[in-house]
Queue: 2 jobs
Job 1
Amino acid sequence: MISGRPARLLPALLLLLTVLLLPVASRAQTTVQAPPVLSGTWETDCLAIDFLPAYCAKVRVWFTGDTMNTQATLMSYEQDQVLGTITSLARLRSAAVVASPSSSPSPTPAATGGRATLSVRYAIETTDLTPQSADGVLFANLFALACNAPSWQSGSTRSLLGLQCRDFLFAPAGFEADDRITVSGSDLTFRCYPFVNPVEGQDTCSAHTPPVFHRLDSRR
């Protein structure tokens, strides 16, 4: 005969586990609003694509609530033709101003000349490539070849999450990176982004010179 005591203990144990685990899940999903200093839309010049040297990408970033949005416009150097777009969405897990002219007690490189430096952490959610034309599909297939991925048959959108493209690895879904953003007048630079290295045990920044994002007059 089985005692009824274990049966009475089981619901109590389940309740205890629920109480203990809920805060952990809640912390894992916590996001923060982007500080006002990041407001506006920021864009780079056309950046070289290492594994496709005939092409470049003009990267635009803007912050909405707790979201960091990115759109990279893929172009041909010779024809100045838009071939496709890579869109990415990341959630801000933390964002804090660590140095600014008003908060720093003494002049420092990060707090002079109207500059502010922020420590941020963000989680990658989506990264998608969409060809914009027939030539864009041809470009996408060059991209796929460089990334050892299936070829495009049409202009459909495809995820790049976790894709290895020669020496560049796109971060997988849920990957969280610590970064630093410096705002100086109408310019913004990341320490890492968009060259985030998602390889475990290594610095999250790849060996690239951080591009400069220039503030645009238009607002999203």
Job 2
Amino acid sequence: MFSNGGYTKAATGTGYKKISFNGMTEQFISKIWYHLLINNWVLNVILAGILLFLIIKRGKKNFLTAEMSVVFCGFSVYSVFHKVYPQWVFDSNEMLNNGINTILAILFFANVLLCIWNVVDKNERISMCILYLSSGAVAAPLLAANPIGARCFYISYIFQALVVLKLLRYLVIRYKTDLFYPVLATGVIVCILAVIYIRIFLAIGQVNDYRSQLIQAGIEQNQKEIVLPILPYSEYCWQTVPPTEEWEKDFKDFYHIPQDVTLRFE
């Protein structure tokens, strides 16, 4: 993450990002685990499905396998439900709600490691556990960074995806599993999702281009107020409107808008 120039500026006290060791506990509870696991619902469902399949293949029925099955099913359903209905909360107290989400995420993370250690052969399980632990380790420096978003966790998601791929390879080799139809179904779903996302970001790009035209016209006509449209599907972007005066100043600098011009988004 520190290859990003934004963090270099943050370390020197400039730029919109800040590096601070105050509030790391709140950052850990409110943001780290949310983005690392709860927000990562697609990989959660795939990973849980593979691990449940391995548990069934092992054929052992005891308290541990029952507990892991409940955690995998419950967390997968919750992460999908949270994506579909993000307004729902466990409690109106934001800190308590974030704390519950963090406990659930840690429980899922720990059970993934526990399941891999118990159902995968010795020569494979160590590398898988290291990869999965690495997804959390590379996110650790974000405890001191602010603001952060889902894009800061891409490397973590790559490590988790590698674990999924290694588990799929293990299934094919260890249990001679025919994955043609599951892989075909997954490929079709991925293509459909890709088309949907392309359509969404094309719409965002069209409105953003229109924004740029309005800004250019406003600058050329020496307008004292420029009215800009809010980007569609704004939930798929980190920020679409400058949230603070400092950000608005940077927005004007980027588009070469005079600082005395008023911006209005509607």
